[in-house]
Amino acid sequence: MTMPKTLSPGLLPAYAMRVLSALEDAGWEAWIVGGWVRDALRGDPAHDVDMASNAPWKKSEQALREAGIDVHETGTAHGTITAVVDDKPIEITTYRTESTYSDFRHPDSVTFVDTIEQDLSRRDFTINAMAWHPIRGLKDPFGGRKDLAAGIIRAVGDPQKRFHEDALRILRAVRFAARYSFVIDPETQQALEKCSGELALIASERIGQELNRILESKRLGWALKYERIVLRAAVSELAKLSKQQWEELCEEASLIEALAGGLCPQTLRWAALFSQNTVKEAQNALKRMAQRTEVVAGVEALLMENEAAADLLERKSVTREKVLNLVSELERMSKGSGFPLSFQLVELWQARSIVERWTDERRRNIATIKTLLTELCAEKLPLKPAELVLSGCEAMELLKLEPGPKVGNVMNEILHQVTAGAVSNNHDELVSFVRNHAAELTD
Ligand code: ATP
Ligand code: MG
Q: Domain check: are 243 and 145 in the same one?
């Protein structure tokens, strides 16, 4: 348990103080709200500053402009504008509550209210429903500070009602619990499970954003183990897994994070999440959740090679050439991440070897593959003809070739000779190699 810090007035960055003063000098009330207050109390690195004010957004805009501050109308339908001071954005939202959510996603309308307490009551969890002012101090009507000290995620108000209003809060609860290693209050947990079906009504890309953050928390294994109902409701592909597959998934996800020693790439985390699914299912889920193209391509490449390269793990089959083929294949599929993905595949295999209790022989092969990968990576071998220091045009000139498919074949052969160690990727050496082997190369 970490005791929340006491917030001294000097903690507020000068750029935020300037905005707060501009609003209050014009006669309005303003508070710092949400993530900044939570993270400052935790003593975490600075979070972007959000403010709430009783000023209607047009009045805030006017007060800020009069104080010489840049303002952008970023969400005026919800009462939000963004001030920019010293290149730092600060969102200012008029005190508001949200009315009904007939689509379970967006409030049908927002109602502007008079007090900060009313504004705080629409916020999701007690730790996110505190306001702070450098002079007036902390406003904490729902016991957020106490929950922060005890490490508890608790919904503000009736949890079921709050999740029914906006089902995304279900995943946000898991996200905050994962990020801070907090527990979820039992009543809130019950409501999470009860309302999880409503996640089906949430836009997939918003689900994707929350999952991304759950993965970033490094506690995917925990989330899979303790929030099975929620995660299965959030991602239909995961709902297909059997009990045993789920158990293996939990173990593998925790191991991947431990093996990477806190430096697990996000692509590997996503690959671990879908390691019990087919490549097609993983691809569909990631695309639907609007993940970045490199992540989709990387996960696809990892899961495909996880199967396709499995023979490498069999006795006697590990050779430098086969490992290089694997790197080249991953390079081709991911368009440029051959080595990073190869190391990630090794980590997937390492985790799997523990979960499935692979033989010592297979484990030794994994270690050999890793050593070979390290050596190959240090050699900076070219993985495609474009990475040869000799260009196609130069080869054409040296070999007196006309443009055409033959040039491609020649370049592939030169690449093959370089990766096999017959010649190094050095310009002078390649020129003499091409001259000396003209006949074989153009054969
Ligand atoms: P992070 O550090 O991840 O940015 P945050 O608390 O700043 O966390 P945001 O999503 O940026 O989270 O939202 C800012 C604040 O707005 C939250 O602290 C919370 O008070 C409120 N909020 C955001 N989303 C919701 C929601 N879906 N329902 C209720 N309140 C919300
Ligand atoms: Mg935020």
A: no
Please give the pLDDT value at position 45.
Answer: 84
Mutate-to-test residue for ligand 1 from 39, 103, 124, 198, highest number of ligand atoms within 8 A of CB: 124
Backbone angles phi, psi at 362, to 5 degrees: -65, -40
Per-residue model confidence as pLDDT tens digits over 329-358: 998 898 889 999 999 999 999 999 999 999
Q: Which CATH number characterizes residue 392's domain?
A: 1.10.246
Spatial CA neighbour of 168 closest among 233, 105, 100: 105
Residue 157, domain member (yes or no): no
Q: How many domains does the chain have?
A: 3
Show the CA angle centred on residue 249, arms to residues 244 and 253, nearest 5°: 155
In a domain, 271, yes or no: yes
If one compares 212 and 403, the residue with the highest pLDDT of the two is 212
> Is residue 42 packed enough to be buried (19+ CB in 10 Å), middle (13-18) or exposed (0-12)?
middle
- On the question of pLDDT at 177 being above 60, the answer is yes
Report yes or no: 120 and 131 within 8 Å, Cβ to Cβ. yes
The protein residue with its alpha carbon nearest to ligand 1, atom 16, reads 34
CB distance 194 to ligand 1 below 6 Å? no
Q: Which domain holds residue 394?
A: 386-442
Residue 46's pLDDT band (cuts 50, 70, 90): confident
**Is 314 exposed, middle or buried (CB count within 10 Å of its CB: 0-12, 13-18, 19+)?**
exposed
For the entire predicted model, the pTM comes to: 0.89
> For residue 185, is it within any domain?
no
